[in-house]
Amino acid sequence: MNLTSQSFLPHAVTGLPTSYELLKEENEVAVLGAPVSPSPRSSAPMTSTVISIHSETSVPDHVVWSLFNTVFLNCCCLGFVAFAYSVKSRDRKMVGDLMGAQSYASTAKCLNICALVFSILLIIGFIILSATGTVMSLQAFSQTLKDHGGY
């Protein structure tokens, strides 16, 4: 029985590329038009490569703001609805539909603004009612003290 090990991929052990890969790389360089010699007298035209990178416009989805409004300032469930639109906006952005993402994001932004304004007005109204209620109760308490002689 022969105990010598033979590898199925002889070039994987040595790390050397095969002759086909070398020929393929030489062919790709020739197709790209790279100059063979960088001499100024060369008659070969210089070619350039232009890489167009499309800048992805940033579409804010307002998820954090919507989550804050949902948890803390959920007036008339506007925060929850804004959160739903924010998630839809994020989904549209992941798919690549930037126009749909922008539409959902603007709706989420409007709902967040409305939720914030309504909640601030509600908090201010509660503060005013509690302050006037405290004043009214103190006046009523002092009136009863005067009427009953301190008892």
What does this structure look like?
- There is one protein chain.
- With about 150 residues, the protein is an all-alpha fold.
- Helix content is about 65%, strand content about 0%.
- It has 5 helices and no strands.
- The protein has helices spanning about 10-15, 20-30, 65-70, 80-95, 100-150.
- α4 (about 80-95) packs antiparallel against α5.
- The N and C termini lie far apart (about 115 Å).
The fraction of residues in strands falls at under 5%
Mean pLDDT: 77
Number of helices: 5
Using only C-alpha atoms, the radius of gyration works out to 37 Å
Largest sheet: none
Determine the fraction of residues in helical runs and give it as a percent range.
55-70%
Task: Using the alpha-carbon principal axes, give the shape.
Answer: rod-shaped
User: Could you tell me how far the N terminus lies from the C terminus, measured between alpha carbons in angstroms?
Assistant: 115 Å
Oligomeric description of these chains? single chain
Order of helices and strands: HHHHH
Per DSSP E runs of 2 or more residues, the count of β-strands stands at 0
Low-confidence segments, given as residue ranges, are: none
Structural category: mainly alpha
